[in-house]
Amino acid sequence: MGGGCHRMLGWPWGPRAGGQHLHSLTVPIRLPGLPPAADMANKGPAYGMSRDVQSKIEKKYDDELEDRLVEWIVAQCGAAVGRPERGRLGFQVWLKNGIVLSRLVNSLYPDGSKPVKIPDTPPTMVFKQMEQIAQFLKAAEDYGVVKTDVFQTVDLFEAKDMAAVQRTLMALGSLAVTKNDGNYHGDPNWFMKKAQEHKREFTESQLKEGKNVIGLQMGSNKGASQAGMSYGRPRQIIS
Fold first, then answer.
1. How many CB atoms lie within 10 A of CB 37?
2. CA-CA-CA-CA torsion sign (82, 160, 123, 128)
3. Does the first or last residue of the chain, that is N or C, have fewer Cβ atoms within 10 Å of its Cβ?
């Protein structure tokens, strides 16, 4: 009933006030703390994502990046995966059932150690498709993609945030190029190599020598005493 409730004031049918019949009257009553019913009727649902927010997310989607990712996926998986229709929704439909993504991450591993099981026929049931996407996401994390670069299943399945999907694929491609283990296919310039940690190994004698240098830099108090040291004029006590 919107922002308030209605009290029914009724009289029984019958002659009143000069033979006129009075019908039931509806009197709106405002409840404290609630906006008027008209204001609430003009507002959308409180749940979900507003159109403005969704529009901003969609604007982050990069059409040029899509072309590069499609080229890489086809080069990595082979022509059998096909190609999507151009645009955000075409890209989403292509990846939605999780099969292309699963083939992609499997292609980054040598034979005999593929992380994702791919069914003989593409899944058609919703929960099976979402399960396939989830397997890809876990395999991508295991491969080295950091959690902050991993999209959520609904980002792809419901096209909530296809820019996040692009971000995950870019991170995966960058790792594949950086590892340079022979499993990457395509132009290496499509992705930027990730910064690698350079570890230096030292022999035991080098480590001991380093400790000695640190000791000399810090100095030594061996044999030191306060003899001959002056701390200023002594205090005089007058009795």
1. 16
2. positive
3. C
Choose between 13 and 159: higher pLDDT.
Answer: 159
**Residue with the two structure tokens 């292609």:** 107
Coil, helix or strand for 180? coil
- pTM tops 0.90: no
Q: Count CB-CB contacts under 10 A for residue 67.
A: 12
CA distance 105 to 183: 10
pLDDT score for 235: 59
Is 217 exposed, middle or buried (CB count within 10 Å of its CB: 0-12, 13-18, 19+)? exposed
CB 81 within 8 A of CB 73: yes
Q: What is the DSSP-derived secondary structure letter of residue 239?
A: -
Runs of H (alpha helix) within 47-125: 51-59, 63-77, 88-95, 99-107
Q: Rounded to an integer, what is the distance from CA 153 to the centroid of its chain? A: 10
DSSP state of 56: H
Q: What is the pLDDT of residues 54-83, one digit of tens each?
A: 777 777 999 999 999 999 999 999 999 999
Question: What six digits make up the tokens of 105?
Answer: 């991450």
Long-range contacts of 80-87, Cβ-Cβ distance < 8 Å, separation of 24 or more: 87/63
**CA-based nearest residue to 128, from 143, 139, 117:** 117
Query: What is the pLDDT, as a whole number, of residue 46?
Result: 36
